[in-house]
Design goal:
Strand content: under 5%
Membrane topology: Single-pass membrane protein
Pfam families: Transgly
Helix content: 55-70%
GO molecular function, one term: pentosyltransferase activity
Strand order of the largest sheet: 1-3-2
Largest sheet: 3 strands, mixed
Oligomer: single chain
CATH topology: Penicillin binding protein transpeptidase fold
EC number: 2.4.99.28
Distance between the termini: 110 Å
CATH class: Mainly Alpha
Shape: globular
Number of strands: 3
Order of helices and strands: HHHEHHHHHEEHHHH
Family: Belongs to the glycosyltransferase 51 family.
Amino acid sequence: MTVVVDAAPASPAPRSKKARHPVVRWCAYLFGLIVFAWCATQVFYFVQIGIWTFVNPSDTAFMRAARWRFWHEDQSIAFVHEWVPYDGVSRNLKRAIIASEDADFVNNNGFEVDAMLQAWEKNKKKGHMAWGGSTITQQLARNLFLSTEKTYIRKGQELIITVMLEFWMDKERIFEIYLNSVEWGKGVYGAQAAAAHYYKTDASKLSVGQSARLAVMLPRPKYYDDHRTSAYLLSRAAIIAHRMGAAELPSDK
C-alpha cells in the first residue's frame, strides 16, 4: 500500500524591506519636502526682513492680494501708495494709532500674551477665529507676507515673523513701515495716501481729530471708507483723541 503525503505549499519568497514599505517611504519623502519648504520659507522671510531694515518695501502681500481681487472682480480701482519717511508723518497720527491699536507698542516684545488669551476666549465663544489680539508688529507681519485668512496656522506664522521683525528692526523702523503700508481704504495704502484721500492734505499736517478718525478706521478701512460719518467712528475717535496725549512714541525713548 502506497501512502501519498501532500507536500506543504511552498512559502512565498519574503519581500525585501524596500518593496514592503513603499507607502512609508513616500510619506517620509513627502514629509521631508514639506519640512524643507517650510524652512526655506522662514529663511526667505528672515532675509527679506533683514533687507527691509534699510530698503523700503515697494508693496506688500495685502496689496498684491487686493490687486488680484480687484482684477478678478473686474473693478477698476486705482492704487495709491506714496512712501514718506518717519518724520514726514504727523505725530498726531502716530499717537492716535498707538492709542487705538497697541498702547504698549514701545515697550512690548512684539506681542501681548494677555491680549491673545482674551482673543482666544472670545473666539471660543464665537466658535471660530474672529479676534486676533494683534499688536502693531503682528499687524505688520501679516500685511507684509500673509493673507487675510483667519486661521490658527496663519496666526502661528504671524508670530514667527513678528519675532523676526523685532530681531532685525528697532521700533521706529517697524512703525515707519507700518505707517507706509497699512490699508486705509479701497486701494489706499499708507499715511500719505490716506491723508490725501480723506482730507486733501499731507501726512505731516494731520490734525488731532483727523488722526483719531484715521486710527479708528484701521480694523475696517474699506467699510469706513464708505461710512465716514458712522456714529461709532465719530464716538470712538473722540475717545482716542483724549488718549493720544498718553501715547508713547519710539522717538520719545
